[in-house]
Amino acid sequence: MKRFFQPVEKDGSFKKKPTFSSSPSSPSVVKDGEETTTTTADEEKNKKKEPLKFITWNANSFLLRVKNNWPDFTNFIHNLDPDVIAIQEVRMPAAGSKGNPKNPKELKDDTSSSRDEKQILMRAISSTPFRNYNVWWSLSDSKYAGTALFIKKCFEPKKVSFSLDRTASKHEPDGRVILAEFESFRILNTYVPNNGWKEEETSFQRRRKWDKRVLEFVLQNSDKPLIWCGDLNVSHEEIDVSHPDFFSAAKLNGYIPPNKEDCGQPGFTLNERKRFGGILNEGKLIDAYRFLHKDKDMDNGFSWSGNPVGKYRGKRMRIDYFVVSEKLKDRIAACEMHGRGIELQGFYGSDHCPVSLELSENNP
Questions:
Q1: Catalytic-residue membership of 231
Q2: What are the pLDDT digits (tens) for 310-319?
Q3: Prediction pTM value
């Protein structure tokens, strides 16, 4: 979602101290449009079984967070020490000069301004703790959307792809998908298209098509458990928004869609919520946060907050998720929102706060 304000930032407090890998970045090989990583003998010896701690965050411009909020966010990552960090709304353009094909895996650096911006970003993620991660990008042609996936170097995925089709070499439009496959599960990082307000602007159609493709992906890839995370741009139930009546009645410039089930705040229309529920039910997926937190939490039970000045002040939604296969249900140890209050403490400059998931060890 979009924001037009500068929120108040405040550090979160977490007890666990990080441990860092000293292994160098491992090489990768591209085969059949997918990126497969390789490991050295020493890395293999020291490698843990699988990632257990995950963070997802819509940064609302990763570069701006680096420029304005990096010490606080770095401290947050230091303390929580996640194995995987999924970022949405990177908003850095893909490599490639004007008029030429773009490379969504690489940051643009063919102009002086883009080189400067890339240098700022790369310098930030080359420092502790981010230097202990490998990073994959999926970027838009412009400063729009885009995703990134940071994975600790001791957890090399078997392969990484950038499309819901898995075998396709091209990236999803706007860099909305990164899919990493491990031995025992897959993790899917997505920045889901916003539903928009008007049918005639084709945003409704785009979102319906997206939801259909996600359901097909889940059903066709049920051979391994799935961890699906990111800004999913939907609040499933009334408990997932602070003011259900406000969001149900919301409209843009007085416009009312012909179908009443398309009415209301994007992300809280009946059609979106029904389709999301269908994906969960048919795909045998669990909303990890709601699985652990049954009651409404008006203080820190939401991941997105509206402008603290104006009619959206105090209006909040839970649209950032960890959704996991039912096979992983008994391993959900924790799933938390790390921001609180209408002044956006713990949002680190974004209008979204980080969300974490922790799984227990897999004991077959």
A1: yes
A2: 899 999 999 9
A3: 0.87
